[in-house]
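Re: your question from the hallway

Yes, I did run it. Sequences:
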Amino acid sequence: MLELKNIAWSLPGGEEIIKNIDLKLDDGKLIVVTGPNGGGKTSLAKLIAGIETITSGQIIFDGKDITKLDVTERAKSGIAFAFQQPVRFKGLCVHDVLNLAAGEELAELAACDLLGKVGLCANEYLNRELNSSLSGGEIKRIEIATVLARKAPLSIFDEPEAGIDLWSFSRLVETFENLRKQGTGTLLVISHQERILNIADEIVVIANGRVRTAGPREEILPSLLQGEVAPFCPYGKEERK
Amino acid sequence: MNDITKELLSMISDFDEKFDGAFNIREDSSCAGRKSTENIKIENKKDEPGIEIHIKPGTKGEKVYIPACVTHSDVDDLVYNDFYVGEDADITIVAGCGVHSDGEEDARHNGIHRFFLEKNSHVLYEEKHIGVGNGTGAKRIDPVTDIYLADDASMEMDTVQLSGVDTSIRKTSATLGARAKLIVRERIMTDGNETAKTEFEVLMNGEDCAADLMSRSVARGNSYQEFLSTLNGKNRCTGHSECDAILVDNGTVNAAPALEASHLDAALIHEAAIGKIAGEQILKLRTLGLTEEEAQERIIQGFLK
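Structure:
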């Protein structure tokens, strides 16, 4: 289980980005974090992965206090992270990065299987460099595959749908569903997509650096779709009350 | 052949107590072993130190090994090797040089290689350079490579200098005939106070010839690297020159790719990029469980692969 205890994060200039968030994420669930742009979703995900460091509060993962662990240590403790805007590498090929993610030399078949899960025809990609010859959508899908390769207890995907085509997105949704059924780890997905919200076990709505609401999909999604919790506008109905 | 030569050979080639195919091993300015084959004949030059390598027309799939080793200080080895590759041949040449220094005096190898490729022949040329040993004398390797490609001939050069060479000046020139093709892949890493200078000059004389030069380098410590390249398009041709460099610590790289075209249909491009390892790249690998140092090494290793 991941537990965020009253965590906050401010920019060096003092601007508060995350404000006193308390959250518990159960094992084996697919949790979708949604909310308006600039509301703090990506910041929250980066704080969990250790990419940014919280200003105050505590993060407990699998019963251990990981607050002071850096990004490498958190990765080793079982947290995987797929960036919204993946980086490119000159010299590292797709197979190299999948091997690094898996922590072992993956057989070609296993690497192909991972790429297939994100809709890539593996034979064409394994030996390609992760450089500018790949499109944004291709790089994005490879990024997601690296997180799948890690088989981590907690996998975080920051807007996995961004930049990928409709067909690959459908394949990705299937992959998330399958992973959830297997129950091998917790999936934390930041997304605005209704199709991903539709397969969530739980939904967390974040706006203006705070949790607006959180709970089972059946409870949250209807009101979300009707605009009652105003996820897409920080000054929506709830804010105006 | 002494033990240092054996060790150096294993570093710069796939030597495992022997070579399969034709070979000539140069050790401290002398020949430490030679073998010709039916299709590849190796013989001494008559007027200067070095050898001639004659590859029969039509020879396919064979390898020839021409390594040179300097195993101690106070050796200044100069050698002239000429390669004559017959029409329609398609072979691999493994060269490379290892320099071992154990004293105050310099240890140097200066290999001047000339390649004459006849029509429609193809050569894959692999060359690794390395310096080892605890001597305070400089370890120097200064290769000169002159390439002459007849019509429809092609050559791929894969050259690597990864560590321990204190100073290096690498000069490569090529003259291309019609439809000839030259591909060069160079990777250099310098550290400490090492310096490495690379000069390419390609004369693209033949119609529809092509050249692609790519240099990747890493300058660490206080090392200094210089990359100079000139593509000279004298006919309808395509040329591409690229220098990518990563700076670590206080390393310095000076890249100056140049283009000269004297034909309306000469299409020449150059690119040069110098910078440190992007923080995002380090971060990504850290999210995979690597430490910052491991991530940096892995990125450099991949970059120079």
